[in-house]
Amino acid sequence: MTMQLYIVYGGITLDFQADGYEVLGGFYPETADEGMESISDQFQIRIQGSSSADLHAKINAIRLAFEHAKRHKNDAQAAWFYYEVDNSSNAWMSKLLDGDVIYDSKLESTWRHYIVIATIIVERKPYWDAMDEIQVPLTNGNGTNNTAGLTVFNHDDGGGASPNHHDNWVEIAAADVLGDLPGPTRLEILNTYASSRLFVSWIGQNWTDPANFDHIIEGEDSSTGTPHAGDSSSSGGAYMESSLASGAEATMFTWALTDSFLNTCWGQYYKIIVRFKDSAPLFPIKYRIKLVYSGTTIWQSGQVLLDTTRGYSVRDLFTLRLPPWLLGQTNLTALTMIMTGQQNTGSPISVNLDFEQITPLDGYRMLECAGYGVVQNGRMIDDGLNEVAYIDNGAGDDKAGILIGYGNPIALYPGKKQRLYFLMHSSTSQLAEIARTISVKLFYHPRRRTL
Asked: I need a surface site. Which of 52, 93, 151, 220 has the fewest CB within 10 A?
């Protein structure tokens, strides 16, 4: 049985078990404590050269690997440190950050024989990733265990039928995620919509209770406001209008949060991302969300004023815990959620709300193009392993680094069923078409704290 221990960087493989290198006494990787950013391992090695110059070259090769690692910690040219206790299976890899070569006290006598005994110190990430990328089968109303690309809509109202069911989420089976730490993903979002380029994608993740959690609250389910039905450009074919007078803060929309709904929330954090029918007249308004119990406000956000530089009708408005008390418990009482507004233009403003997405934050990512957007059959690629985001032409060519990521790349929690929820916006101001579709593929590397 032969141990595997090597570094790969810049197309070069430096094998510590071949080509004049021999590990002495084995290699025993350290286990990181919680919260550590890096970890150091060390092992002893015998380096044998054919001449003094060859010995220098072999030592320099190790130092060059460490120098490369220092210069490429956060890009796709990173150096990787590989280890496996035997050669019967693939090695696991840890991103290399730095390192050093320290000679033993017998350097003078061993050098005469073109031999050096040295301690190699390796600074690396505090975990190990599987060498091979694994594609994750995805499921929703448009397919089961899909790996060809699963259709996702820009709303979720229960309408449509496979392969065009109105689901804006994908589900991952618990058995399909291995390891003992959340594993980094490569997310491929293919723009399958013919009109107006894809510009923004919002992605929420739920591994707390994805099977039971209902993430959409329709505007027309509000008990305050004026409902408008028969609108094909709205989720569920309807939206709710509220006429907000100028002056004091006032209630616009009111929803009942049932006990059964709150029981599936478990006191976790959520973003309330809303889709308005339009965006231009909404900028002067200060928005607030309130949670009310028996007529008493038990929690409220600060007032939120929209960023006027973004002409988006989908807006990330609030972040809160649901419910805000008795975290992790069930058998809860119902609450009321109120969205208020305040404006001082001197005239009433009509606010037309299509729906709220109660977006779970077990993971969260927003991908926004710095310009132009993604054409039909082009892709957004978010690569969490190599820490890079970009767009391409759908076939891996014409890459452009115009994709900006906010939040951390999605990581898959091992051994848990989970869902990813998507909302999209076009490159055209105010257009977040409910009929907009994407095709989603997901790949990941299982991750372990130790081997």
From this structure: 52
Domain encompassing residue 304? 214-361
Same domain for 380 and 346, yes or no, is no
Residues 280 and 380 in one domain: no
Q: Which conformational region is residue 328 in: left (phi greater than 0), alpha (psi within -120 to 50 degrees), or beta? A: left
pLDDT in tens, 80-90: 999 999 888 89
Placement of tokens 């001449």 in the chain: 51
Q: Which SS3 state, helix, strand or coil, does residue 68 take? A: helix
Lookup: tokens for 391: 């767009």
Question: Phi and psi dihedrals of 442, rounded to 5?
Answer: -140, 135
Report pLDDT digits (tens) over 394-450: 999 999 999 999 999 999 999 999 999 999 999 988 899 999 999 999 999 999 999
Could you give the CA distance from residue 363 to residue 443 in angstroms, rounded to a whole number? 16
Distance CA 239, CA 389 (A): 35
Quote the number of domains for the chain. Answer: 3
Domain boundary among 101, 126, 151: 126
Tell me the pTM. Answer: 0.94
Token pair 């094909």 in the structure block, residue: 232
90 and 154 belong to one structural domain: no
Looking only at the bridges linking them, the beta strands covering 314-322 and 296-300 are unpaired
Q: Are 442 and 152 in contact (CB under 8 A)?
A: no
